[in-house]
């Protein structure tokens, strides 16, 4: 396994981290298959992975509730005596927080579930403009200071799904943040804070963690033949899985990549790729090829929405840009289930089915999209009930 230093934390972190959001489970998402998960995690740790990423909401049966992941990981680390061999992460579920007392209560329950007296890497989960403003108002900085002073947390950081401006604000507002977790893969260079966000976090001396390296596995599933043909033209031959990881590990700004692995086979393959990876080892032609592949994927999207939001606010509250974003990603990667989680994370009264087809927005779209017609397609595509678990 290769290791990099996680920015200001000074921690030596394996370049491949274990995301514990997609552990094997039985019928429902909260029924973790303990035996298989134990085997997979043990294999990963025994072969050099030293970071496990958990969150309050992982392995829940609905999109906003408490999951079983932290409890499971707490049991696993203690029963197998692995606690001292890994950096353990956990996250404050921002969408459940209204007061500082909520933060205290949830944090204490996490310590109990994780069976630890110190969480190595603690994050505010899924920051965006609204959550960040809320945290500032409720005095979250004092709470985070107290976690560091009491030793209950070793390093504080954040995960974010937001635009670049807010990454800058978040990093600059609270000077005790030591690392940040954001989404990046070769399709998402410009999605949310994208590559620029990772570069900024790194430039400010914070450690960088990457989520969604394979876009929930979708960069290696249902790959169209013409994209495979493109990969075949590479100067150095790699599998699509290798391209996805090596694209990230090629960057010196990337410290660790979290992958939600759920079989021994996946862990083995990913570790092998990590072991072979090098910074700045992809040729110029192959870097261009990665851009070409991304371009080819993007031709498959559902419509030409750029997310400019000139059509918003919709008088009936529809998040047009958000609906089209998830629709386009799903079409591009031919994988509705993968995007459905994000689509159903939009507030229920902002989804496509709330469009009343008044066409007030029609002439606002510079891309000439017939918005109400395309929202109908989005509604048909995802349906109205989240049943993709
Ligand atoms: S057509 Fe739909 S999205 Fe456009 S303004 Fe009317 S309700 Fe909103
Ligand atoms: S105006 Fe058009 S391109 Fe811009 S967000 Fe609305 S639908 Fe998308």
From TrEMBL:
Pfam families: Aldo_ket_red, Fer4_9. GO terms for molecular function: oxidoreductase activity. Residues 344-374 form the 4Fe-4S ferredoxin-type domain. Transmembrane segments: none annotated. InterPro entries: 4Fe4S_Fe-S-bd (IPR017896), 4Fe4S_Fe_S_CS (IPR017900), AKR (IPR020471), AKR2_Oxidoreductase (IPR053135), NAD(P)_OxRdtase_dom_sf (IPR036812), NADP_OxRdtase_dom (IPR023210). PROSITE patterns: 4FE4S_FER_1, 4FE4S_FER_2. This is Oxidoreductase aldo/keto reductase family. It comes from Methanobrevibacter ruminantium (strain ATCC 35063 / DSM 1093 / JCM 13430 / OCM 146 / M1).
